[in-house]
Amino acid sequence: MARGVVVTSLVDAVVEDLRNQVVTGTLPPGTPLTEADVAARYEIARASARAAIERLTGEKVLERRNHKTARVVELGPDEVRDIYRTRTYLESEVLRRLAARRTVPDAARAANAEIATLWADGSYAIVEPDMRFHTSLIDELGSTRTSAMYHSLAFEVKLCMAQLQGRQRLSPQIIVAEHARLLELIEAGDAEGAAALLDEHLARARELLAASLGGEAGPEAFVPSSALPV
């Protein structure tokens, strides 16, 4: 009996394109995606479409409830808070360790400079460089398992950030200033200062996003940035 074979590179390309459409909002939360839809959209076999949907469901880009049609994941306030708190637990410990070494990756400086350039051009399209800033700090630790844990959150984090970006709730000016201050604190060896600023940085985003998704913003949303001049 012949076995069905799915071309992995084709499935990878479809998965990447659909993932990008979700992050950019081209496929809004709740959008249904059937095998027939995906097969027709990309002119591929149903087996390849099925494989792509299964991959995206496993990555939590799509969700399937009670064996029904897969849909683009919808994040609520509680889920956003859980994602951001998990980020904080991981990132704060990494920043403390980087501060102990006084190690600042060049990739973090480059990513923040890119955000500054986009902001100067009036753009809020900063999700990718913002994520690269934070990921470069995690990866600088040099722990394969810590990086793997953080990268497993990457899509959900990017989706949260993209939803904030679309609502223009976060100021790139504040993001750039707080990123720059974080790097200064790490370079100065101020572990507790870096961890405290990170908590402020992520808590503001967490509560603004939770409010934009129907929740009630906590007081952290309204705390003025300590990285900006008074």
What do these coordinates show?
- With 230 residues, this protein is mainly α.
- Helices cover 67% and strands 3% of the residues.
- It has a three-stranded antiparallel sheet with strand order 1-3-2.
- α1 packs across α3.
- The longest helix is centred in the middle third of the chain and has 25 residues.
- The model has no long low-confidence stretch (mean pLDDT 89).
Largest sheet: 3 strands, antiparallel
CA-based shape: globular
Supply the number of structural domains. 2
Uncertain stretches of 5 or more adjacent residues: none
Could you say what the CATH topology of the largest domain is called? Four Helix Bundle (Hemerythrin (Met), subunit A)
Radius of gyration: 19 Å
Distance between the first and last residues' Cα: 74 Å
How many strands in all? 3
Structural class of the helix and strand makeup?
mainly alpha
- The second-level CATH architecture of the largest domain is Up-down Bundle
Give the full name of the CATH homologous superfamily of the largest domain.
GntR ligand-binding domain-like
Strand order of the largest sheet: 1-3-2
